[in-house]
Amino acid sequence: MLACALRQRGCMWGSMLGGRLSNFAATRRQLSSADATANLAQEKTVANPSKQQLQIHALASGVPMVGFGIVDCVVMTQVGSTMDAVLGASLGISSITAAAIGLFCSDSCGVLFGGQIESLAQRMGLPRPGLTTEQLEMPASQRAATLGRLFGVQLGVLIGSISLLFAPSPKPCPVCNKPLKDSNGSFCSQCGAKVVP
């Protein structure tokens, strides 16, 4: 714009400046076009991961999550049910508060034992997908890893839930016949009847 204004006024160096600016713009267009072509060529040289590679990547991503799911479920259910039975009747906390305490403990265990779970999964000798860094960043690889983690943690929670089958069932209240929250307490939390231990 400045070059055009100077050219209209008849300045000699305005036309020189205008010519250099237009040459600079043309060179810049050529370079950006060359860069785009090079980037496109580089993208074409990165091969898409094969179906087998994606399956192995999903398996390798999911196996550690099985361990996380087991630890999370076992700790949360055991701590939550213990808090509900022990502190529920004596302190009057609700079942959902006891579950929140169990969740707090299970998340803490997940952070504390996360490194050990991952190193154990790596020592299992699972096959490696053999993906390059560029292939790992592809949407198909990220979807496979996410699905592997999702199914892994779900399987781990199902396995961890087996511990609930071995939990002792609470004694019933002699008056209302509902399960006692605290078997060592002196009153039923449901009907308020006095319970003789």
Overview of this structure, please?
The chain is mainly α and 197 residues long. It is 69% helix and 0% strand. The protein contains six helices and no strands. The chain has helices at 2-8, 12-45, 51-91, 95-122, 133-136, 139-160. The radius of gyration is 33 Å and the shape is elongated.
Quick overview of this protein structure:
This protein has six helices and no strands.
Keywords:
197 residues; mainly alpha
End-to-end CA span: 95 Å
Please give the largest β-sheet: none
Q: Helical residue percent?
A: 55-70%
What Rg, in angstroms, do the CA atoms define? 33 Å
Portion of residues in beta strands equals under 5%
Distinct helical segment count: 6
The count of DSSP E runs of length 2 or more, i.e. the number of strands, is: 0
Q: Which structural category fits the helices and strands?
A: mainly alpha
Order of helices and strands: HHHHHH
Quote the average pLDDT. Answer: 78
Taken from the alpha-carbon principal axes, the silhouette is elongated
Q: What ranges have pLDDT less than 50 throughout 5 or more consecutive residues? A: 12-17
